[in-house]
Structure formats: C-alpha cells, structure tokens
C-alpha cells in the first residue's frame, strides 16, 4: 500500500456499496485508495479472508492497521470535506447503537447476497 494513503476495501458487486463508493471517490481529497474486493487475489497474506471482507467494510490505514465496520466507514468518510459529520457515530453514547445498526445491516446484506453463493451454511 502507498505511504500516507488509506485503502478502503469495498464490495464492487453491491449496488448500494458501489453508489456510496462513487460518491466518496468524487468527494475525497485524494488520500484514499479504493480496492474492490472482487479484484483482489484471494489468499493474499496481508488481506483478511474474502468472506471477512464481504461481511464488514475493511480499511487499511497508511500505517498498516486494519479498521473494520463502523470505524472503517467513519475513517473513510474522514477523507471527505464534511467527514467530521460522521465522527459523532463513534462517541460513547451513540457508538453502541450505531454499531448495532451497522452490523445488523451488514449481516442482512451478507446473508441475502452471499450465503448461498459462497456455500456458507446458515446457523
């Protein structure tokens, strides 16, 4: 990964995700790299599993740290001029609720789109 650039891994086959990425790509200040997870070599030693990448949004910071889920979303949007509007989602009073909403949405999206395609058994 490039120094001083965060890399956002997103699901390019998800219409909602692709729409958000198009908006973020247009608004960001040039310090965010976009990586469609379907175009990444599977089993790459530095990447989480393909299934993990599909389940939650992942962002690798320019220092090599992995940020996932709601934290990844807030960090990605911090590259846009109004990114500070997303910061309250991480405040202690709001975060537990925002995290549950994000994870519920992400789980439903994954189950509807990928459980059958990946051959993952529902529990």
From TrEMBL:
One of its GO terms (molecular function) is protein-disulfide reductase activity. InterPro entries: DCC1-like, DCC1_Trx. Coiled coil: none annotated. It comes from the Bacteria. This is Thiol-disulfide oxidoreductase. It comes from Marinobacter vinifirmus.
């Amino acid at each position: 990964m490039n120094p001083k650039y965060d890399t956002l891994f997103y699901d390019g086959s998800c219409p909602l995700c692709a729409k958000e990425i198009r908006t973020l790509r247009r608004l960001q200040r040039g310090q965010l790299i976009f990586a469609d997870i379907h175009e990444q070599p599977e089993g790459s030693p530095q990447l989480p599993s393909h299934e993990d990448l599909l389940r939650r949004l992942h962002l690798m910071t320019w220092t090599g740290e992995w940020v996932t889920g709601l934290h990844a979303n807030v960090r990605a949007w911090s590259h846009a001029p109004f990114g500070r509007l997303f910061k309250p989602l991480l405040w202690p009073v709001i975060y537990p609720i925002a995290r549950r909403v994000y994870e519920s949405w992400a789980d439903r999206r994954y189950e509807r789109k990928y459980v059958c395609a990946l051959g993952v058994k529902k529990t």
